[in-house]
Amino acid sequence: MRIIEETQLDFDDLLISPKRSTLNSRSEVELSRTFEWKDINGNKQSLTCIPIIVANMATIGTPRIAKIVSKHGLMCALEKHYPFEVLDELYTDLENIALAEGLSKNFYSQKVMPSIGVKEDVDIIKHLNDKHPLKCICIDVPNGYIPRFIDRINEIAKICPQAMLICGNVVTGDICQDIILHGHGIVAKTGIGQGSACITRSKTGVGRPQASTIIECADACHQVGGFCCSDGGCKTVGDIGKAFGCGADFVMLGGMFAGCEEAEGETVYIDNKPHKLFYGMSSNLAQERHFGGRRASSTSEGREKYIPITGSIEDVIKDIKGGLNSLMTYIGARKLKDIPKCCTFFKVNSQLNLKFANCKDFKNN
Q1: Is the pTM higher than 0.90?
Q2: Are 98 and 106 in contact (CB under 8 A)?
Q3: DSSP 8-state code for residue 198
Q4: pLDDT score of 297
Q5: What is the DSSP letter of 109?
């Protein structure tokens, strides 16, 4: 047994210091980023996007939301239980939309990724890649420390050598480097127990605060030529900026999109206000709907909640973009990838003035 004495930090423990800037306006910053890597054959590959990913959760990692967010430059990881026919139709639609707008065929589809774990049939990914060469794939397991996870990364890398693989979840630098060294264009997906619909920490005692996770894992990823994705823990737009400031190349979000009108969770009215069903992918409900029920050897590690509808997904995207634009102006980061270089954190005991937080809002929503 060993105890790590160093205090581990979460987003709530940090605030970003403003800095002298040459930027006069939020309009001077650039949120899109181009990622480049060489595939297994030495061919140059690239992906241009706003590196914010809708999580591959049942109510938000959907074709409907994928079409919306890709049009705004963001990415979407699809929930991993869609059949080939649904995925084929989505990618065909995205390609046709791009061509009709005079854009390259994969302009939108490259921002949408199918997801697969260690149990799902790899043939769906193979057939999809044969018809629509994939630019990005999410390889998703709750525990990225099992041997079968690396085996699956190797398998997908051979089937789709041109694709960026976003693989997780893990929280330590050593395994991030193991993941990245098993392929080309690898992104280590980091975060365990941090999501708003996750109760892994209370059920297993396993996890690590997200800011410290990113700081260690991003450094480890970059040392060996890979990328880092922060998955979970963002409660506010400011947390997204902190995740980028800690070194993340991508930020994956679940709960921030789950209350959108376009989410596919059932809508119910509570106190005359609309709410959406949102559930973790290890919850009892998820295991019943997608895995044929909970196995005797497992437990529920996810919440099942009705959450208030927050408006349209376009409203959320606009808020995220505006917050990042403002952050970058505060610290003088002209490009998104410059945020870590321009970022200095204050370690704090509190960060928000909540005096009027419980008062009735001006608008009745």
Answers
A1: yes
A2: yes
A3: B
A4: 60
A5: G
261 touches 313 (CB < 8 A): yes
Instruction: Label residue 65 exposed, middle or buried (CB < 10 Å: 0-12, 13-18, 19+).
Output: buried
β-pairing verdict for 33-38 and 44-49? antiparallel
Residue 89, classed as helix, strand or coil, is: helix
Half-sphere exposure of 218 (CA within 13 A, CB side): 20
Q: Give the helix ranges, DSSP H, for 209-275.
A: 210-223, 237-245, 255-258
What is residue 198's predicted lDDT score, i.e. its pLDDT? 84
CA-closest candidate to residue 213, choices 235, 197, 234: 234
**Cβ–Cβ < 8 Å for 193, 207:** yes
- Give residue 363's pLDDT: 67
Q: 198 an active-site residue?
A: yes
> 59, 190, 200, 329: which one is catalytic?
200
Catalytically annotated residue among 138, 160, 176, 198: 198
Across the chain, where does the E strand assignment appear?
14-16, 33-38, 44-49, 52-54, 75-77, 112-113, 115-116, 136-140, 164-170, 186-190, 227-231, 250-253, 267-270, 273-279, 304-308, 345-347
pLDDT of residue 286: 66
Question: What pLDDT sits at residue 147?
Answer: 94
Q: pLDDT below 50 — which residues of the chain?
A: none
